[in-house]
Amino acid sequence: MIVMAGQVWVSLISLGGVALGGVLSYLVQHRTQRSAERAEQQRQRISLSETRRAERLALLERFIEVSAEAERCAYTRPSAWEDTDDWYLTTQDVMNRLWVADRLLRIQFPLTVSDAAHTHFLDLNRTVWQGLPDGESVRDYLEGNRSAFLDAAREVMG
Length: 158
What we know:
Layout: H1 2-75, H2 86-108, H3 111-130, H4 138-157
Helix pairs in contact: 1-2, 1-3, 1-4, 2-3, 3-4
């Protein structure tokens, strides 16, 4: 009986060791899985952030490029034009693309950037279609709000 009781104790201790080992193994695997999930979530956040940054840079580039085209249209603005003139047709296309680029910035950027871009757009729109009073420089008129837009964009992209 003593031998049998000893065997029971050995079996119970062995079973307890197996149970303890199983619990410890589960805890380690669970912790490792959670750590891997957190690492994957962090990697996805970083990837999404990099993708959004690239999209924002592309939108900024598009807006700046089209606003430069609009500025060239303002410089070459004739005193009078018809709806069939080359200047008007080219300018109409440029201003439509600038309008779209302006709206896309509103979707992707905080209001500080989109408001500054829209103010610059309105300046360009006025300069292109209405012109400026005699003696006023296109470059000087556009410089203030253009710079404000670029500064706001730099701040957000920094």
